[in-house]
């Protein structure tokens, strides 16, 4: 499951949101405190909104241009087998 | 039009779902259509970056010019115990090399040996067929196809979750309606032909590839028949980690063992043993569990040390991340003792179509795993057949354009679909579909319901599903995220009902359908499809004869004659 996004390095590009197949990450208006001058591409920041629905596909981590997303290969949200 | 805000798109051919089937359907429609043919491809998430195919390794059966297509057709049909559309299988194989050339034409590369020949591998349960895969796996496959479709002028709409099929007053399907899967914005897409390519339905067994599809159930609701509901894809695996290369590990010496350390596959499958295809392995595992021989393992000690890295370092991007981040744990899990289970991955239920991918409902076609071409796809014919039927569906949709009137959208139909789509959205509702889903999983994943079936247990499961459906009818969705999941769970409940009904109907054992109360395969009575149609809200089940123009349902001397050579360390 997705663990965290290093917000202080985030440019707000939104790729993690776009490539998520489980609607886990949403771009939302960034708090003023998170805005890094000269770095941000938008005034939006990613929010891990539905972590419990993460399918551990790693897309957000794979495609993040800043390499600041961390997905852990956890299996805790998987159903019981047979 | 009714009074609401929304987006109306007009197109000629609408393709719903962007896995291998949908991507190929759109490409085929654009390339086979006359200049100016409008093709629109929609997907719930991001076309080219998400979906079942994108998260696969992309292995595909391809018949190269030197291959014997008759022989491959025969073994695929026999490996389906006869439950296959022979014409569709053969047409897909015949065109597979041309598609491979198409893929290379858009920039895909496939591994080749030093002499320049494709590196090809055998696959479990088949002897002469060979698979190959694109560099970069399914993710690169889907991405390059997305780029090609953009170049060809196909309209791509991401994040559009289709919630309804529109019927015209003459009964034709005249397009679809849906919602933006983030904003909930309503879309109406009118089209002369609609191709449903929304994957097989899954019960979200928890792996990346189990992204579920609801299009088959929409087709069912619109009057199309479904088939192969009694068959499923239940694969050996472990909840601890996802191991895509089991087929090849077995070729390199891995063996299934039970809690007593016994290699059990030969007992159940004397000829193919551990190289049997998935339904036969799942059945053996379930019988071992029933006999009290758990835990079951995949003993990887037979895989030579120098090959192990091949399995730890996956070619699939997300799996590579997965194993790298697990670190030494991955090695311990994979080569140590981790219990294995037969995990339900998806139903084989799909839309009944002819070999041309046209359904019984005018204007509605199906392709990919949403089309019921086979009941068993092996490793490599899931995508292999999706490529084949996707292309064929695009051709058929193009052929239909000339004789199809412009779609006439009935505002009352749109209003009804709008209401149905958004009615569960209630601000104060609790997000409860997950709870129902968990209970549904417990019913459908039970080994003595999902694999080893018996009338009384199927009936009991059916009663539990009916009870869940009653509870489900009461719940709403507080936001669009939950609304989409709720719609998917609704489709799963309906699918469970159809699966259990079809499983009760087929009173014999065949492929992944094992009836303990009817243990034998019964060709005299059951070498046929079970088709189901909606009759006033109730499913009706009927037998449909299977045309067999090329071969019979069996191949008595089918056995793995291929050379037992090492494959993993090559350029694969």
What amount of the residues of chain B lies in strands? 15-25%
The dominant shape of chain A is elongated
Oligomer: heterodimer
Look at the helices and sheets of chain B and give the structural class: alpha/beta
- Main β-sheet of chain A, in a few words? 2 strands, antiparallel
Q: Percent of residues of chain A in helical segments?
A: 10-25%
Largest interface, C-beta closer than 8 angstroms, per-chain residues:
A-B, 28 and 44 residues
Instruction: Report how far apart the termini of chain B are.
Output: 55 Å
Distance between the termini of chain A: 22 Å
Rg measurement of chain B, Å: 23 Å
Kindly report the spatial arrangement of strands forming the biggest sheet of chain A.
1-4
Beta-strand content of chain A: 15-25%
| Radius of gyration computed on alpha carbons of chain A | 13 Å
Judging from the principal axes of the Cα atoms, what is the shape of chain B?
globular
Element layout with pairings:
The complex is a heterodimer of chains A (82) and B (572).
Chain A (H helix, E strand, L loop, with lengths): L1 E4 L9 H4 L6 E5 L14 E5 L10 H5 L5 E3 L11
Antiparallel strand pairs in A: 1-4, 2-3
Chain B lengths: L5 E5 L2 E4 L3 H13 L6 E4 L17 E2 L7 H11 L6 H20 L25 E2 L4 H16 L2 E3 L2 E8 L5 E8 L5 E5 L2 E4 L18 H7 L4 E2 L4 E6 L8 H6 L3 E3 L7 H4 L9 H13 L6 E3 L8 H5 L4 H10 L1 H8 L5 E7 L2 E2 L12 E3 L14 H21 L9 H12 L10 H13 L1 H5 E2 L1 H18 L7 H26 L8 E2 L7 H4 L1 E8 L2 E8 L27
Parallel strand pairs in B: 1-9, 2-3, 2-10, 3-6, 10-17, 18-19
Antiparallel strand pairs in B: 4-5, 7-8, 8-9, 11-16, 11-20, 12-15, 13-14, 20-21
Helix pairs in contact in B: 1-4, 1-12, 2-3, 3-12, 10-11, 14-16, 14-17, 16-17
């Amino acid at each position: 499951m997705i663990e965290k996004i290093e917000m202080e390095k985030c440019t707000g590009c939104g790729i993690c949101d776009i490539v998520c197949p489980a609607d886990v990450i949403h771009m939302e208006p960034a708090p003023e405190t998170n805005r890094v001058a000269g770095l941000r591409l938008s005034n939006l920041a990613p929010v891990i909104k539905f972590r419990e629905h993460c399918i551990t596909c790693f897309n957000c981590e794979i495609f993040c241009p800043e390499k600041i997303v961390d997905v852990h290969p956890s299996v805790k949200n998987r159903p019981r087998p047979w | 039009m009714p009074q609401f805000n929304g987006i109306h798109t007009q197109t000629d051919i609408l393709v719903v779902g962007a896995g291998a089937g949908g991507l190929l359907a759109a490409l085929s429609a654009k390339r086979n259509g006359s200049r100016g043919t409008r093709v629109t491809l929609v997907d719930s998430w991001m076309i080219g970056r998400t979906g079942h195919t994108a998260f696969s390794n992309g292995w595909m059966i391809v018949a190269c010019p030197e291959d014997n297509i008759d022989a491959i057709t025969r073994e695929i049909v026999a490996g389906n115990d006869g439950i296959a559309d022979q014409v569709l299988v053969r047409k897909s194989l015949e065109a597979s090399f041309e598609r491979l050339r198409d893929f290379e034409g858009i920039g895909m590369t496939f591994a080749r040996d030093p002499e320049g020949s494709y590196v090809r591998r055998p696959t479990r349960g088949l002897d002469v067929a060979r698979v190959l895969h694109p560099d970069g796996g399914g993710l690169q496959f889907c991405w390059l196809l997305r780029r090609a479709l953009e170049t060809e002028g196909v309209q791509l709409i991401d994040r559009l979750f289709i919630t309804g099929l529109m019927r015209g007053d003459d009964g034709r399907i005249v397009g679809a309606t849906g919602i933006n899967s983030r904003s909930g914005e309503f879309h109406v897409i009118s089209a002369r032909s609609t191709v449903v390519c929304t994957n097989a339905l899954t019960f979200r067994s928890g792996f990346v590839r189990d992204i579920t599809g609801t299009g088959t159930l929409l087709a069912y609701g619109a009057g199309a028949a479904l088939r192969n509901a009694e068959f499923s894809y239940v694969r050996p695996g472990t909840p601890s980690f996802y191991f895509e290369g089991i087929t090849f590990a077995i070729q390199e010496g891995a063996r299934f063992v039970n809690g007593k350390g016994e290699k059990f596959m030969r007992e159940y499958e004397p000829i193919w043993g551990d190289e049997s295809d998935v339904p036969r392995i799942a059945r053996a595992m379930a019988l071992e569990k029933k006999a009290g021989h758990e835990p079951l393992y995949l003993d990887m000690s037979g895989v030579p040390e120098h090959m192990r890295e091949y399995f730890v370092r996956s070619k699939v991007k997300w799996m590579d991340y997965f194993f790298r981040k697990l670190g030494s744990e991955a090695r311990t899990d994979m080569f140590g003792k981790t219990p294995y289970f037969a995990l339900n991955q998806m139903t084989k239920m799909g839309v009944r179509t002819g070999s041309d991918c046209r359904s019984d409902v005018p204007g509605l076609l199906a392709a990919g795993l949403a089309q019921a071409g086979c009941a068993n796809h092996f490793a490599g014919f899931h995508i292999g057949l999706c490529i084949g039927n996707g292309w064929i569906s695009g051709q058929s949709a193009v052929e239909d354009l000339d004789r199809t009137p412009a779609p006439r959208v009935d505002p009352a139909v749109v209003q009804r679909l709008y209401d149905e789509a958004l009615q569960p959205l209630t601000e104060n509702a609790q997000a409860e579909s997950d709870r129902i889903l968990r209970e549904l999983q417990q019913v459908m994943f039970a080994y003595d319901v999902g694999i080893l079936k018996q009338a009384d247990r199927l009936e009991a499961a059916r009663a539990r599903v009916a009870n869940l459906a009653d509870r489900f009818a009461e719940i709403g969705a507080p936001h669009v995220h939950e609304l989409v999941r709720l719609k998917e769970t609704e489709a799963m409940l309906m699918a469970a009902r159809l699966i259990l009904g079809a499983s009760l109907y087929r009173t014999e054992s065949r492929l992944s359908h094992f009836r303990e109360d009817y243990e034998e395969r019964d060709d005299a009575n059951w070498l046929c499809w079970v088709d189901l149609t909606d009759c006033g809200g109730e499913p009706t089940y009927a037998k449909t004869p299977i045309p067999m123009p090329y071969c019979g349902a069996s191949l008595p001397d089918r056995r793995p004659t291929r050379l037992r050579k090492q494959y993993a360390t090559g350029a694969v």
